[in-house]
Here is the input.
Amino acid sequence: MMEVITMADVISLLGLPGPKDGRVTYNIQCPCCDENPRKKHLNINLEKDVFRCPRCGFSGGMFDLYAYYSGVDRRKAREALLARLNIQDSETPVTQMRRKPKQKAIVECPITDVDTRDETYRALLDKLSLASDHKENLLARGLTEDEIKRHGYKTMPVAGNAILAKQLLSEGKYLAGVPGFYHDRDGRWSFVHEKRGILIPARDPNGKIQGLQIRMDNASKRKFRWISSIGKQDGTKAECWTHLAGKPQRTVILTEGPLKADIIHQLTGDTVLAVPGVNSLNHLEESLIHLKEQGTCHIMTAFDMDYLTNPNVENGYARLQEVLSKVGIQYGTYLWDPQYKGLDDYVWQYCFQSIRR
Here is the structure.
């Protein structure tokens, strides 16, 4: 049987990075638009023998890839590959030597840097508004109008998402690698369609927007979700980022959820670090190390009081203690009247409302 050339052969000959864990699609640094080696927008598809960068449009088949990296003429790439692989030539086109079932492969983008995400998300939020019922909800939780505006909360768009993406592109914003953006069936960039809710920015210690959460209206389960375009063409998965409200201090409160952190910070003046949930601690260690370097030496955990009766929360709390001990920061736990689920509810309803009465 005649041997055939595959994309895997080309990757090996060019010395390019190979896939991990047996994947058939993966990303490497794009030679045309990725200035930083940590940025990897060029997708290699070993199943379809193609490559594509959604950021700059660099794309083609295995012969195009070989021609670009080796510097040979595209018309001579096939012959050059046959010679290097010591494969006898044949008049039968390589593309006819093997037939594969036609499958539409979903190619996702690796996440881009935080500066790019921040710039794109800020531009997106500037184009959105906050519905009156969402504003009333935030006011009722203890935030002022100025604080609501400063934090950048907006209402999730339910229509015109492709138009929003087009406007962002026209302004020079990058959408590839920003969770929430993807190519729709018509090949246009768009923003994910979610049910109605409040968009909540999750910020790093420098105030840059790492990602967006949505607080879903009328949701009984999973009320808070990350804006993500995983599973969509050129989409990007969101990560479980932490969120810092306030500047690092000697003592920092640790809670769950960016919105709750913002409210506690605004009501008390204390600095608050938020994880998405007690079982979502992926980025916690690096955040604690940063705080420790800035002088933080004490963490007070303030998770919802249901951790006392919820075994899933209790198990997550044990993992949390392991991370805190590993980083070497002393820690304690705030307890309050369990009729108030979260510390934000307790501070607002018990302390501030009592003072007003």
Summary: The mean pLDDT is 86. Residues 162 and 190 are 4 Å apart (CA to CA). The first strand starts at residue 25 and ends at 28.
